[in-house]
Amino acid sequence: MIKQKLLPLLLIAVIFSCTSNEKSEETSTTETQPAQASSNEPPEVLKQYGDEMSTLTGHPAIASAFETIEAIDEQTVKDMIYLTEIPAPPFQEEERAKAFRKMLEDAGADEAWIDEEGNVLAKMAGTEGSKTVALDAHIDTVFPMETDVTVRFSGDTLRAPGIADDTRGLSMIIAVLKAIKAAGIQTKANLLFVGTVGEEGPGDLRGVKYLFEKSSEKIDSWISIDGGSIGRVNNKGLGSKRYRVTFKGRGGHSWGAFGIGNPHHALGKAIDIFSIAAAEYTKEGPKTSFNVGIISGGTSINSIPFESSMDVDMRSVSVERLGEIENIFKESMQKALEEYNASGIRDSVVLELTKIGDRPSGELADDIPLVQRAMAATEHFGVEPRLTRGSTNSNTPIALGIPAVTIGRGGDGGGAHSLHEWWINDNGADAIKLALLTFVAEAGLEAETVISR
Predict the structure, then answer these.
(1) Whether 171 contacts 85, CB under 8 Å
(2) DSSP tag of 415
């Protein structure tokens, strides 16, 4: 876990690099890739799931829920604006979590609570209750607490850090809950509405990891809403390993102490050794990447630093290759330490490696029911589904073999993880309907559900 005092520096670096570290934003740099990159053919939606969607959307209760989503669309946008203007960096999500919990209660949740990790949960009991299906969006954003998150309007465009990633997802969950309650929808499985903490970079998926590793809640299917337009069905997790590398020495004056170990010099050697070895390794095989994203240390130009550090990110579509490049990284760091300390310096440097991120890889078959339902629901709204690979909350359940997908928040938006993030309500209600339809289909609509009047 990153120390609290280092968090603002790390987050500011993320923001102003204008990268989109975890998302699949069509209008920004993206790490999400088509899951079927080797084929130009769209993924196949099996007929039985298309038929299932036709049956569901023909049910009066689903039709009523869709009408509610349209009717409350303006309020849903207001909910999004309200939540956006509550700062929520990783490890500092408490105030937004409290607000989200209150909104779930006001929307009609049977009960809502905040767990020990800080996640917000609300449950609606199913008629059978032997299965639980979760609908998730993450509470945190990448922006430091002092960031101005005031929502500004430019015509029909809403602009604010975090407006789409992922505050839109939170407002969609509120709308889904309101629509289900208003229509009197009953499902066979339990419905779990979730706002997770720690999805963004330094949070390292801590909220969803807690739910699947430590929580008493047993979740059988998982649906995340996070980034992108309608059409995205993320069923493959892009795993990553992240480390902070720190070389330490005595430090001193650049002239008077010349000749003692210099942590910056050791760090430079480490980057060189690792880059050469990792570049050779990544030339072939399933896609694997490496990156030195942040370098810090030193006090002045005429001082030998006492500490030098870098943050390293490694990713792979393959669990095995992710482990192998991690080993290459560790061996390279140790080799750099030994070679530098043997180079004739006085007062050798020491090395510290701290793991600051560990996101699992995994893949789910295209034909499992949840993936098929998400694709069939997408087709119902006249959009061709795209199976993708990404780094989202779904990584954790996917790696465990639990049915999970991440779907888009809809509308039109861009600039994720930047101060100029924006979103337009371009048929945004359709994404909410899609989320509800997938959610209810996976939970099983109770045959005796009658439209609420």
Answers:
(1) no
(2) -
pLDDT for 24 beyond 50: no
What's the confidence (pLDDT) of residue 1? 39
Is this prediction's pTM over 0.70? Answer: yes
DSSP 116-134: TTS-EEEEE--SS-S-EEE
pLDDT(114) > 80: yes
| Site of tokens 């789910």 | 364
C-alpha radius of gyration, the chain, whole number = 24
- Backbone conformation region of residue 37, classed left if phi is above 0, alpha if psi is from -120 to 50, else beta: alpha
- CA neighbor of 296 nearest in space, from 267, 338, 269, 330: 267
Residue 47: phi and psi, rounded to 5, are -55, -40
Q: Report how far residue 196's alpha carbon sits from residue 199's, in angstroms, rounded to the nearest whole number.
A: 7
Q: Report the percent of the chain where pLDDT is more than 90.
A: 88
Paired tokens of 207: 């909220």
Under 8 Å between Cβ of 247 and 314:
no
Vertex 80 angle, CA 387 and 114, to 5°: 85
Which domains occur in the chain, in start order? 4-237+361-443 (3.40.630.10), 239-359 (3.30.70.360)
Lowest-confidence pick of 28-42, 150-164, 248-262, 419-433: 28-42
Cβ atoms of 224 and 395 closer than 8 Å: no
What is the secondary structure of 179-233 as a DSSP string?
HHHHHT--BSSEEEEEEES--SGGGTTHHHHHHHHT-S---SEEEEE-SS-TTEE
Residue reference for tokens 């590398």 = 245
Give dist(CA 54, CA 64) in Å, integer.
15
Report strand pairing: 232-237 vs 221-225.
unpaired
Question: CA 164, CA 221: separation in Å to the nearest integer?
Answer: 24
Residue 192 tokens read as 């779990």
DSSP state for residue 187 in the 8-state scheme? B
